[in-house]
Design brief:
Helix content: 25-40%
Strand content: 15-25%
Number of domains: 1
Largest sheet: 6 strands, antiparallel
Length: about 170
Amino acid sequence: MKRFFKPTMMFIFFVMVSCKNQGTQSNEPEKNGQDTLISENQTPSQATSANVKDLTAFVGKIPQEAGLFEKYLLPQRMQALLGVEYPDFEKDREEEGSLQKDGELIYFTVCRKGACAENTYLIIVDLLNNQINVMNFKGRIVRTYEEGGVIIGLTDKLANEVQRLRSKQG
């Protein structure tokens, strides 16, 4: 009996967690086509030059050098994604890791200066589907946030980065 109880309870838990109330209102920023991010000062018709695939030009640079948070609606998307955790994210965004590319994914880390082991955010941008996932490594807990409920699959390189970040937590 014990053999079936634990797996059954875990299955029920995962079903309950994965079943979210899907409202009709979208928290995603306005897009002009599937791949376009609209800058704060642009109208949808002007946004064609702000394509998430253009982020590959910034590989090796930190988000601040690339103007990632200023040029695009990334802060608005992050705020919608993180909700009440967004002020902590903004406060802890003092130290930024360089943008890395693996396949069709761009990723980078941000943390509080000198305290990355305490609270680190890994931001993953899917270039094909224009989706963002955030993993927050805080203490010994890892929380994930998926834009639109879409989980971006981890490549081997990115999975190694996740393991590295987890091991830094202590």
